[in-house]
Amino acid sequence: MTAREDRAQAVDAAVGERELDALLVSRLVDVRWLCGFTGSSAAVIVGPADRRFVTDFRYLTQAREQVGEGWNHEIAQKLLEQVAEGLRAPARVGFDDTDLTVKDHARLVELAPEGIELVPAGGVIADLRAIKDAGELERIRAAAALADDALTEVLARGLVGRTEREVALDLEVAMRRRGAQGASFAPIVAAAEHAALPHAEPRDVSIPADTLVVVDWGAQLDGYASDCTRTYATGQLDPEARALYDLVERAQAQALTAVRPGPSGKEVDAVARDVIEGAGHGEHFGHGLGHGVGMEVHEAPRLSRQASDDPLRAGHVVTVEPGVYVPGRVGVRIEDLVAITAEGHDVLSSLPKALQSV
Ligand code: ZN
Ligand code: ZN
Predict the structure, then answer these.
(1) Are residues 104 and 230 in the same domain?
(2) H/E element holding 209?
(3) What are 194-242's pLDDT values in tens digits?
(4) Predicted confidence band at 1 (pLDDT cuts at 50, 70, 90)?
(5) Residue 311: is the preceding peptide bond cis (ω within 30°)?
(6) Ligand 1: distance of its center to the CA of 248 in Å?
(7) For an engineered disulfide with 174, which of 1, 150, 210, 330 has Cβ 3.0 to 4.6 Å away?
């Protein structure tokens, strides 16, 4: 059985568990995961008795090639109208309430035949997508390796005297040259006090000597993302910056030891948070410890104080990225991409974490 047939059957099972007859899949990234379709217009109805793939005429040929025979192909000008009119009553049909607009929902209700009950069912595909199969893991591993190679090349050209924006652009180009479709998000290159902004945008400002530089970057390769952060020194550091680096490195290492099947994302977050709070910097670690990575750079599961109590599971791929940000002064973040395995975990990020001067 192919991975894709497995996926459709996993959705059938989830649909059954929720006492639904079928699920409307409206997010394109979910459609791609389920059917392999990479175009920009599609909707899917999937369930034990349904395999409907709806797209518009531009994608007739592409859909035949990518989606294959297991699905009933339908071509429509208005996808949702086609979906609604083709529903067979009576049925409970789940829809993604985290995606479908209020307007589209109203239209579906209006057009669906008598006897169709539309049921909010967000998260069905997200939860399935969170568990990666072997092929997906290989792709994420390859994206991470490509991103690491690209940063290694860029660092060899030095940081001091180049602007943050130049370095970020250089990194994007280096990833593209190695075959990435692009960066999985706009790279962050943030020096000195600018690094105290967790989502800093690269500036047209030269990177000075004797400071810290946060680089947060990832590649998009073959449909999958990577995500990693390293913080580099550009010479001698003052004692405060050095101490913060050591603190974040320690918190990151501690949290990693907790990453395995069993604990919840909330519990793993607490491991890093305890280390940072113990050093008096709790208020300077304002974001969650990590997030799932796959076809999207931010997906399920979450590792944070607000995360669910569901246990982490083998097949999850998550980041472990504590940070400490002292406003106006200094910021440090260290992030690894980690695959959770039956035995524990496998770190996919390969660049060293001991403080390195560039
Ligand atoms: Zn990141
Ligand atoms: Zn991240």
Answers:
(1) no
(2) none
(3) 999 988 999 999 999 999 999 999 999 999 999 999 999 999 999 999 9
(4) low
(5) no
(6) 15
(7) 150
Quickly list H helices, the chain. Answer: 3-17, 28-35, 60-67, 79-85, 102-111, 124-130, 134-156, 164-177, 239-257, 265-278
d(CA 224, CA 226): 7
> Which ligand is in closest contact with the Cα of 290?
2
Query: Would you say 133 and 6 are in contact if contact means Cβ atoms under 8 Å apart?
Result: yes
Question: Ligand 2 center to residue 319 CA distance, Å?
Answer: 6
Is residue 100 within 8 A of residue 119, CB to CB? The reply is no
> pLDDT band for position 3 (50/70/90)?
confident
166-178 tens-digit pLDDT:
999 999 999 999 9
Q: Which ligand number lies closest to the CA of residue 293?
A: 2
How many angstroms does the Cα of residue 353 sit away from the middle of ligand 1? 15
* Band of residue 4 on the pLDDT scale cut at 50, 70, 90: confident
Q: In what order do the strands lie in the sheet with 345-347?
A: 299-303, 290-292, 317-320, 336-340, 345-347
Q: Is 357 contained in some domain?
A: no
Name the burial class of residue 341, with classes exposed (0-12), middle (13-18) and buried (19+) by CB atoms within 10 angstroms of its CB.
Answer: middle
Mean pLDDT of the chain: 96
DSSP state of 283: G
Identity of the amino acid at 205:
V
| Dihedral sign of CA atoms 317, 322, 325, 330 in order | negative
Which residue range is the domain that position 147 belongs to? Answer: 134-347
Same domain, 138 and 123: no
Q: Are strands 116-120 and 91-95 parallel, antiparallel or unpaired?
A: parallel
Q: Are 151 and 82 in a shared domain?
A: no
The whole model's pTM is what? Answer: 0.95
CA of 342 to the centre of ligand 2 (A): 23
Task: List CB-based neighbours of ion ligand 1 within 5 Å.
Answer: 216, 227, 229, 335
